[in-house]
Amino acid sequence: AVACCALTAACTSEPATGATSSPTPVSTTPTESQIERQMRLDYEAAEKAYQSALAEREHQGALGIAKSTPALKASATGAYLDLVLKALRYAHDRHWHSSGSTRVLGIVRNGWHERSVQLIACEDSSGVRLRDKADNDVTAQEVRNYVQDLTVERVAGGWKVADVSTVVVKSFEGQPCAA
What we know:
Layout: H1 2-11, H2 34-63, H3 70-75, H4 78-93, E1 97-99, E2 103-113, E3 116-124, E4 129-131, E5 145-155, E6 158-168
Antiparallel strand pairs: 1-4, 2-3, 3-5, 5-6
């Protein structure tokens, strides 16, 4: 009978006198490894560099200028910086400015190395209009959907878009970066 009472007491939900309960932490998802954490942080920084470079390109386009500003140099370098400045100079030399903005439909993380990251971005530039000095719309009437294959490199502790390969597409259907 004493054994039954002891078992009954042990099976009750009441803690024994003087007992303390310390919950055991339960992990429902595995934590990210150190390398996964580094990759995530690098991709986030690379995406931020891309978005910053795009924003500065659009800012300068709206003003009709073409300068290697600190903001542009903070997020772009190499062939990508040269390409952005070339496009801005083309519009500047014709006394054009832009209005509207490019809509990024999606960004796909496409490769990671310790010093570089590959991103693929779908850009819809149909909302961007080019205007001349007389405010006439001089925007080309062709499709302006771009799939950008971007190389973003770690430079001096930060990330900068360094290169790009661009493909013009009629539709983003079937593209890896389409949302």
